[in-house]
Amino acid sequence: MMRPILVVAVLALSLPLSALASSFAGSSAGSASGASSAGSSSSDDDKVVLDAREDAAAFVASDGAIRGARLEAALLHLRERDAAQREASDMALARTLLAR
């Protein structure tokens, strides 16, 4: 009974932040005509990570039992981008996503 309440509480606390972060990512992506391919790639990377925050919150709150598709994509993305993160546990990376 306690875990579902914890999951709901964590998700409720993270929703306003993720909504704000998603809005920020969308507004800072640049215009289609003036954005360089490197800039677009960077904003796409950030979007993958920001979109995974809700899944990361559920993963942490459930002690790893809930694994969403967005979290899986972000974990893969982070490990491909940074060699140091290849050695980090899924839980450590999920907590890092929540701290952003």
UniProtKB/TrEMBL annotation:
Pfam families noted in UniProt: DUF2388
Transmembrane segments: none
Residue stretches of biased makeup (Low complexity): 24-42
Keywords on record: Signal
Span list, region Disordered: 24-46
Signal peptide extent: 1-21
InterPro entries xrefs: CHP02448 (IPR012661)
Name under which the protein is recorded: DUF2388 domain-containing protein
Lineage: Bacteria, Pseudomonadati, Pseudomonadota, Gammaproteobacteria, Lysobacterales
